[in-house]
Write the structure tokens for this entry.
Amino acid sequence: MKKTLCASYDLSKPRRNYEDLIAALKSYSGWWHNLESTWFISTPKSPSEVRGELTQFIDNDDKLLVFAASAPGLARASLMMRTRGSEIISRPLISLAILTGRA
């Protein structure tokens, strides 16, 4: 069953070429990118699985947060979001996978 996950990152070297990371995020069956470093993706994978897949595209001093953006009862509010994104994030929060740098 597909779910909506949110992947957000802080890249320590913004001028570095992160095209492979962007391509990986766009490879999921559905994606939406409206904020500079935040993506919503549609996948049957868990946050930990997605984090594991994306880790290869970031540096040791980068940060990556992946969490399920759908669960009953989670409220959201947004401002200046495109309609498609608002629809994607209209569901709630189950699990969380955080990576701060890589070992």
